[in-house]
Specification:
Layout (H helix, E strand, L loop, with lengths): L1 H20 L3 E5 L6 H9 L6 E6 L3 H9 L6 E6 L4 H5 L4 E4 L15 H18 L4 E4 L4 H14 L8 E3 L2 H15 L10 E3 L6 E3 L12 H12 L1 H9 L7 H18 L5 E8 L7 E9 L2 E5 L7 H27 L1
Helix pairs in contact: 2-10, 5-6, 6-11, 7-8
This protein binds nicotinamide-adenine-dinucleotide and (2S)-2-hydroxybutanedioic acid.
């Protein structure tokens, strides 16, 4: 009798200590927003997450109370306002940042710089202080500049690890997969298209020549398809007519990227996602490529592979714009 209950107890405590080792805390900054709320909902559904920390300058108590009733393991805590920022990030394994203003029709992503640069800088400062080993997944636009800002902040604090700061470009891949599946009548779940470069206009470079399964387009088809992928964000901004930009598809893409990071952290092999990271693959010091993810962020940058002549031209056009966007972010971080 005694030995049976002792056995039960020791199994229970073994399970508890395994689950302690397996704790994954994800913080979302901007959690009350158009992206933040559905992203937090999708993350709450992920059984691998044990703590979901929701930070925003408004409304997080309500969002957290609402999500906390969902019957999944993640404990949900809401934090509101700058006084609670560091508590929300403390101990996080991953910090996802969709904080900041979205575009309205007629605006470029770069037009968001004046507002969003300082928001990302301040969030990165807090992360560098209380969660320097966390992976950062930055969604806030302009991604081509906000990622270099966060990296500079981490460098200044002496805690920069280039394997752990990512700009989330997953939505570009999701769109490329969807549009190509539509064009070729394939199941979108079977299509995988790498999209490299950055996350705005001509810096978005879909590598359709590397699509899996392999697909063929005439030059007359390839050009408009590429432009549609590059301008898909604007397509949504126009359709929303002043009510913001992509939120639901971005929440899906952000959750996909975050859950891939978690799976890799937990030792699952062959987890590959594109991400905008510090890079020496091209002349641009930050560049998105397929990345093999591991226990500590990037295991290996998989590079750009063989480009078609059409894609080489896209790359040539993207580099000057990317370099300009990156410099703007770096200069801002060093000035302020
Ligand atoms: N990377 C991508 O592919 C991609 C896709 C879509 C949108 N975005 C970008 O994501 C950002 C957010 O878009 P959205 O539609 O969710 O906007 P939104 O306005 O609906 O939500 C933004 C949220 O950020 C919060 N916020 C503002 N300042 C903050 C601060 N200092 N700290 C914490 N939270 C703060 C706001 O209170 C709000 O809840 C925009 O910059 C948008 O351009 C990026
Ligand atoms: O287009 C935008 O402004 C938002 C986002 O970057 C997107 O690609 O949908």
């Amino acid at each position: 009798m005694f030995s049976k209950s002792f056995k039960k107890l020791s199994i229970a405590s073994r399970n508890l200590s395994t689950s302690r080792q397996n704790n994954i805390k994800v913080a979302v900054a901007g959690a009350s927003g158009g992206i933040g709320q559905p992203l937090s909902l999708l993350l709450k559904q992920c059984p691998l997450i044990t703590e979901l920390s929701l930070y925003d300058i408004v409304h997080t108590p309500g969002v957290a109370a609402d999500l906390s009733h969902i019957e999944t393991p993640a404990r949900v805590n809401g934090y509101m306002g700058p006084d609670q920022l560091k508590d929300s990030f403390k101990g996080a394994d991953i910090i996802v940042i969709p904080a900041g203003v979205p575009r309205k029709p007629g605006m470029t992503r770069d037009d968001l710089f004046n507002t969003n640069a300082s928001i990302v800088r301040d969030l990165a400062k807090a992360a560098a202080e209380v969660a320097p080993k966390a992976c950062l997944a930055i969604i806030s636009n302009p991604v081509n500049s906000t990622v270099p800002i966060a990296a500079e902040v981490f460098k200044k604090a002496g805690v920069f690890d280039p394997k752990k700061i990512f700009g989330v470009t997953t939505l570009d891949i999701v769109r490329a997969n969807t549009f190509i599946a539509e064009a070729k009548q394939l199941n979108p779940l079977d299509v995988k298209v790498p999209v490299i470069g950055g996350h705005s206009g001509v810096t978005i470079i879909p590598l359709i020549s590397q699509a899996k399964p392999s697909v063929l387009f005439t030059p007359e088809e390839l050009k408009p398809l590429t432009v549609r992928i590059q301008e898909a964000g604007t397509e949504v901004v126009k359709a929303k007519a002043g009510a913001g930009s992509a939120t639901l598809s971005m929440a899906y893409a952000g959750a996909r990227f975050t859950i891939s990071l978690i799976k890799a952290m937990k030792g699952e092999s062959n987890i590959i996602e594109c991400g905008f990271v510090q890079s020496d693959i091209t002349e641009a010091s930050f560049f998105s490529t397929p990345l093999l993810l591991g226990k500590n962020g990037i295991d290996k940058n998989l590079g750009i592979g063989e480009l078609s002549p059409f894609e080489k031209d896209l790359l040539k056009e993207a580099i000057p714009e990317l370099k300009k966007n990156i410099k703007k972010g770096v200069d801002f971080a060093n000035r302020t």
